[in-house]
C-alpha cells in the first residue's frame, strides 16, 4: 500500500470535473483519480489527458450506486490508506424541454445530486487524512432556490442546529410534496435542480459542524459554484471554459494547511458569499 497523497473527482469524464482533474494533475503532487459512471467514457477521458502528458488514474464510480461507492472506498483504502482531496462534482440537470414530470425530476435530481453526493461523502469521510479538503460543487442556483422558499423553509435550511438527518428529511419532504402536487403551498420553489443543490450547499455547512468535533485536524469542507460554464449541462450556453469553471473548486481543494477561510462556506469566484 502506498501512502502517496491522492485526490478523487466525481463525474470527471467531461465538463467541469474533467477540468478539475486536468488542473489537479498539473498542480497537485499526488495521484488524481478520475472517476466516471461509464467505464468507456472515463477511460477515454484518461486517454485524452494522457495525450496532454497528464497521468490521472481511473476508477468507476456511479454516485447513485452504493456497491460502486463502496468499491471506490475499498480501492482507496487498499491502495492509499486514506484520501486527501474529494471533489464532489457529479450531478444531473433536466433540460427545460424535458418531458419528465416535475415530480420525477424532483425524485431523480435529489437522488443523484443530494443523496448520491452524501453517499460518496459518507463512505469516504472515514478515509480523510488530517488537512484533507472536501469540495462540493453546488451552484448559485441553490441560493436562488432558497431565496424562493417560504420564510419557514428558509429558516429550516439556515438553522445552525440542522443535522444531516434533518436535511435528508427536508429533501424527502420536497420529493413527497412534488408527488402529491402540493410543493408550492408547502413552501417549495418550482426547481428540482435548485432544491437538490440547496441540499448540496447545506450539506457542506453540516459536514463542517460535524467535523469540528473530529480528532483529525484541519479538514475543510466548502460548497461552491463553478460559474456559468460551457458544458453539456448548460447546453453550451455558459461563457466560461471548463478550465475556468475548475478554478474555484481547485482553489478550494488546494487550500493550504491551516487555512482559516473559506471554511464551511459557499464560494463563487474563489470568494465566500452570503448564502
Ligand atoms: N455548467 C454550469 O454552468 C454549471 C453551473 C453551476 C453549477 N454546475 C455544477 O457543476 C458540476 C459539473 O457540471 P457540468 O456542467 O460539468 O455538467 P456535465 O457536463 O453534464 O457533467 C456532469 C458529470 O457528472 C456525471 N454524472 C451524472 N450523474 C452521475 C452519477 N450518477 N454518477 C457519477 N457521475 C455522474 C456525468 O457523467 P455522464 O457523462 O456519464 O453523464 C458527467 O461526467 C455539477 O455539479 C453542476 O451542477 C455547473
**Separation of termini?**
41 Å
Element pattern in H and E: EHEHEHEHEHHHHEHEE
- Here the CATH topology of the domain at 6-95 and 118-139 and 199-273 equals Rossmann fold
Describe the strand arrangement of the main beta sheet, using strand numbers: 3-2-1-4-5-6-7-8
The total strand number stands at 8
CATH architecture of the domain at 6-95 and 118-139 and 199-273: 3-Layer(aba) Sandwich
Structure report:
- This protein is an alpha/beta fold and 275 residues long.
- It has helices at residues 15-27, 39-50, 66-80, 102-124, 140-148, 151-158, 164-180, 192-211, 242-253; strands at residues 6-9, 31-36, 57-60, 83-88, 128-137, 220-225, 266-268, 271-273.
- The chain has a domain at 6-95 and 118-139 and 199-273: NAD(P)-binding Rossmann-like Domain (Rossmann fold).
- The chain has an 8-stranded mixed β-sheet, with helices on both faces.
- A hairpin with a 2-residue loop joins strand 7 and strand 8.
- Helix 3 runs parallel beside helix 4 (102-124).
- NADP nicotinamide-adenine-dinucleotide phosphate is lined by residues 10-11, 13-17, 36-38, 41, 61-64, 89-92, 112, 116, 137, 139, 225-226, 228-229, 231-234, 238.
- NADP nicotinamide-adenine-dinucleotide phosphate binds next to helix 1 and helix 4.
Describe the structure in brief:
This protein has 9 helices and 8 strands. It is α/β, with parallel strands linked by helices and 275 residues long. Helix 3 runs parallel beside helix 4 and helix 4 (102-124) runs parallel beside helix 8 (192-211).
Amino acid at each position: 500500500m502506498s501512502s502517496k497523497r491522492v485526490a478523487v473527482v466525481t463525474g470527471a469524464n467531461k465538463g467541469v470535473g474533467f477540468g478539475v482533474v486536468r488542473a489537479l494533475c498539473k498542480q497537485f503532487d499526488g495521484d488524481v483519480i478520475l472517476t466516471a459512471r461509464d467505464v468507456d467514457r472515463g477511460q477515454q477521458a484518461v486517454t485524452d489527458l494522457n495525450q496532454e502528458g497528464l497521468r490521472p488514474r481511473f476508477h468507476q464510480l456511479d454516485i447513485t450506486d452504493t456497491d460502486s461507492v463502496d468499491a471506490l472506498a475499498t480501492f482507496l483504502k487498499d491502495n492509499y490508506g486514506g484520501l486527501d482531496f474529494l471533489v464532489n462534482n457529479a450531478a444531473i440537470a433536466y433540460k427545460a424541454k424535458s418531458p419528465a414530470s416535475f415530480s420525477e425530476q424532483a425524485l431523480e435530481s435529489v437522488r443523484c445530486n443530494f443523496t448520491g453526493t452524501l453517499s460518496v461523502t459518507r463512505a469516504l469521510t472515514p478515509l480523510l487524512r488530517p488537512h484533507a479538503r472536501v469540495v462540493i460543487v453546488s451552484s448559485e442556483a441553490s441560493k436562488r432556490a432558497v431565496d424562493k422558499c417560504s420564510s419557514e423553509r428558509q429558516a429550516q435550511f439556515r438553522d445552525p442546529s440542522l443535522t444531516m438527518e434533518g436535511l435528508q428529511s427536508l429533501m424527502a419532504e420536497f420529493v413527497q410534496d412534488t408527488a402529491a402536487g402540493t410543493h408550492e403551498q408547502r413552501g417549495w420553489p418550482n426547481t428540482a435542480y435548485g432544491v437538490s443543490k440547496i441540499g448540496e450547499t447545506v450539506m457542506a455547512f453540516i459536514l463542517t459542524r460535524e467535523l469540528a468535533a473530529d480528532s483529525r485536524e484541519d479538514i475543510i469542507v466548502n460548497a461552491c459554484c463553478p460559474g456559468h460554464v460551457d458544458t453539456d449541462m448548460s447546453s453550451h450556453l455558459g461563457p466560461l471554459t471548463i478550465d475556468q469553471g475548475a478554478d474555484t473548486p481547485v482553489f478550494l481543494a488546494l487550500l493550504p494547511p491551516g487555512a482559516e477561510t473559506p471554511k464551511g462556506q459557499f464560494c463563487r469566484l474563489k470568494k465566500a458569499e452570503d448564502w
